[in-house]
Design goal:
The strands form six sheets. This protein has a seven-stranded mixed beta sheet, with helices on one face. With 267 residues, it is α/β, with parallel strands linked by helices. The longest helix is centred in the C-terminal third of the chain and has 14 residues, at 180-193. It has helices spanning 2-9, 23-32, 75-82, 124-129, 149-155, 158-161, 180-193; strands at 11-12, 15-16, 36-38, 42-45, 53-56, 62-68, 86-90, 107-109, 112-113, 121-122, 138-143, 164-171, 197-204, 210-213, 216-219, 222-228, 233-237.
């Protein structure tokens, strides 16, 4: 009876999906993304709207910020620069970043980040390994590349991923988690990210609403901040959402992080 109900209800783009991810699989994946408490404070880097993110106040020793997906806003990168980090940016869709600092103060390549290298695309490993950096220094990653994050992160080497002390990433198409093919790809990325990192903050982008199915509200786009596990994470989960520093990304109706995304007591 339940299976028949789901088949009748789960419709995407006008087409009924006959196969779907189970509710338990979705809940198990969400549990991997419960934000943990950090022993210090979260602060906001970047603008008051889109382009601003909450990150742990743990920057000492981070050599550089890598930021694929520049678009028109570079306030996050500017805040990293003010903290003494080198800046490396990549985006094929713009001529240059919107940074009010001399071009000699940052490194920009006009390419998209992807899982292979050619004249238009470059992998994270090729990009970062080509730069003059200390071999074992920590880095910070801020990634907003409109859905290309999945094949880019699946392709990244574990050694490079572990150099990122802090990872800030916007994850797209989350309403498609009910589609098994997308769920499997998404789960692979999350398993890779959470092998040596943990979520310390999550925030729905209010641009695109919430997809609610089987009593699981899923914001279509969400921002996640990951911290490497050796940086003083606590065993407890964070239960206060939204954070007082959270801001809406657009002028659309506000979206608060649904309780099922951070509370073990919510099923």
């Amino acid at each position: 009876m339940i299976k028949k109900y789901i088949k009748n209800q789960l419709i995407k783009d006008g087409k009924r999906i006959e196969k779907f991810t189970s509710r338990n699989e979705i809940l198990g994946l969400i549990k991997k993304l419960y934000p943990k408490k950090f022993h210090g404070n979260l602060i906001r880097l970047g603008g008051v709207e889109d382009g601003g993110y909450l990150v742990p106040d743990d920057f000492f020793g981070i050599e550089a910020c890598f930021s694929p997906g520049v678009d028109k806003i570079s306030e996050f990168e500017l805040d990293c620069y003010k903290r003494g980090m080198k800046l490396f940016l990549a985006d094929k869709s713009v001529e240059k970043p919107n940074l009010e600092i001399p071009e000699s103060e940052y490194d920009f390549i006009k390419k998209f980040i992807s899982c292979y290298d050619n004249d238009e695309y470059i992998t994270m490993d090729t990009w970062i390994n080509s730069k003059d950096l200390e071999k074992k220094s920590d880095l910070i990653l801020q990634m907003d590349i409109e859905g290309s994050e999945y094949h880019s992160l699946i392709n990244i080497s574990t050694r490079l991923l572990n150099r990122f002390r802090i990872i800030v990433i916007e994850l797209h198409f989350l309403d498609r988690l009910w589609e098994p093919a997308f769920f499997n790809a998404f789960e692979t990325v999350i398993n890779k990210l959470t092998h040596n990192h943990s979520v310390v903050h999550a925030h729905p982008n209010n641009c695109c609403g919430v997809y609610n199915f089987m009593n699981i509200p899923i914001p279509r786009i969400m921002e996640f901040t990951f911290l490497r596990n050796d940086r003083g994470l606590l065993d407890d989960y964070e239960k206060q959402f939204p954070n007082t520093l959270d801001r809406d990304c657009t002028e659309n109706e506000s979206i608060h992080l649904p309780q099922i995304w951070y509370s073990p007591d919510c099923k």
